[in-house]
Amino acid sequence: MTAAPPFPTPFPSATGPAFSRRTLLRAGAGVCGALAAGGLPFSLNAAVPGPETTLRIADYKALDGLALESAGQLPTPYKANFAEFASGNLIVEAINAGAIDIGSSSEIPPAFGVTAGARLSVVAVVKDDVNWQVVLVPPDSPIRSIADLKGKRVGYVRATTTQYYLAKMLGEAGLRFTDVKAVALTPAEGNSALEQGSLDAWAIYGYSVPAAIKKGARVLKTSNGYLSGNYLYLASPDALADPAKSAAIGDFLLRLRRALAWRAANLDTWAQIHSSAIGVPLEVDREILWKNSRQRDLAPITDADVASAQNVADTFHQLGVLPRAIDMAPAFDRRFTDILSQPLG
Predict the structure, then answer these.
(1) What is the pLDDT of residues 235-292, one digit of tens each?
(2) pLDDT of residue 207
(3) How many helices (H) and strands (E) does the chain have?
(4) Does 23 have pLDDT greater than 80?
(5) Is the residue at 41 inside a domain?
(6) Which of 200, 222, 244 is the last residue of a domain?
(7) Domain shared by 101 and 183, yes or no
(8) What digits encode the pLDDT tens for the residues 41-74?
(9) Among 41, 44, 86, 125, which has the highest number of CB atoms less than 10 A from its own CB?
(10) Would you say residue 73 lies in a domain?
(11) What's the CATH code of the domain at 177?
(12) Same domain, yes or no, for 121 and 238?
């Protein structure tokens, strides 16, 4: 997928009935500044700020904001302005530019951001599905294993989870990325290429998968065991340095934990709400949700999560996509461990 979840749009604002739309420009200036490190611990008893504080939140179409609303976790006592983004790399840019206070992405955009010197801090980890990130082949394909891809045309989405797990699968089969004719395509381009017979295989994610399967495509291999399922909640170091905004971020993460717990416990209701919001058939949404490897939830940062992010960065460096080796650990800030660990009331 892109560096963000598969169907990373609008939902009612936390501060009123109308969705707050923001147009955010890509950061044109050079990136610089130190990364946030350990941070101060967040107190569960910290006073939640009022309407004088505005938290600027990046989200994807019908994702966490919709879950918050559906679970009754909105409105918030502070102003929560949601902005819709199409990809995690744009969220990283917006955080670095100071246009957004918090948002999520896969493990990949932060690696690119850290390499470029972006100012960002990882404050929480979303645990999510990996079953719907797969390598597909046409229905009549003789290809039966990853090893059979040698010399074949394989589509993927550059600098995303698809490039990562495809590289890992090929390596396990004794192949290098250069041993296949890898073709970087957008999801729409990949779908057309597979249907037209110009791809032998396609590494892809999200709703493109069941749509292709319904047209006869076959799953060669899923990313289960190759992807961590981690998505990272990122915050602006400037927001974390502001006591009121830091408290608002802690409250937001707690509300999101409650919302995701509600979502996991009410999958059929969530499928009805979500499928309507993104315009896909209810049966498709329900199938994806019930066949997920795990339901989306929010967790505190662990050493394993840091190691996973480091492995992603190392892999992209080895592929020659990242120009230098980087250390991801300084980007992780564990100040919200308590609020992400306590039993939900």
Answers:
(1) 999 999 999 999 999 999 999 999 999 999 999 999 999 999 999 999 999 999 999 9
(2) 87
(3) 12, 11
(4) no
(5) no
(6) 222
(7) no
(8) 555 566 899 999 999 999 999 999 999 999 999 9
(9) 125
(10) yes
(11) 3.40.190.10
(12) yes
Of 97, 85, 166, 88, give the one whose Cα is nearest residue 126: 88
In one letter, which amino acid is 120?
A: L
- The closest of 73, 69, 68, 106 to 87, measured between CA atoms, is 106
Last residue of a domain, one of 222, 246, 264: 222
Express as a percent the part of the chain with pLDDT over 90.
83
Q: Give residue-wise pLDDT tens across range 173-210.
A: 999 999 999 999 999 999 999 999 999 999 999 889 99
Give yes or no for a contact between 66 and 84, defined as CB atoms under 8 angstroms apart.
no
Nearest-angstrom CA–CA distance, 121 and 238: 10
Q: What tokens appear for 19 in the block?
A: 């969705």
Is 29 among the domain residues? no
Q: Where is average pLDDT lowest: 2-6, 75-79, 165-169, 332-336?
A: 2-6
Question: What 8-state DSSP symbol labels residue 183?
Answer: E
User: What pLDDT band is residue 153 in, cutting at 50, 70 and 90?
Assistant: very high
Contact call for residues 309 and 107 (beta carbons, < 8 A): yes
> Where does residue 336 rank: exposed (0-12), middle (13-18), buried (19+ CB within 10 A)?
buried
110 and 142 share one domain: no
Burial of 140 (0-12, 13-18, 19+ CB in 10 A): exposed
CA distance 86 to 77: 27
Q: What is the pTM of this model?
A: 0.84
Chain centroid to CA 210: 19
What token pair was written down for 162? 């698809």
Q: Is the pLDDT of residue 27 over 70?
A: no
Domain range for residue 72? 54-127+229-341
Strand-by-strand arrangement of the 102-106 sheet:
79-84, 54-59, 102-106, 230-235, 121-127, 297-299
Confirm if 120 and 234 have CB atoms less than 8 A apart. yes
Mean pLDDT, the chain, whole residue set? 88
State whether 188 and 242 are in the same domain.
no
Task: Let me know whether 105 and 252 are in one domain.
Answer: yes
Question: What's the domain count of the chain?
Answer: 2
Distance CA 317, CA 332 (A): 20
> In the numeric block, which tokens belong to residue 266?
């009410």
Q: Is residue 193 a part of any domain in this protein?
A: yes
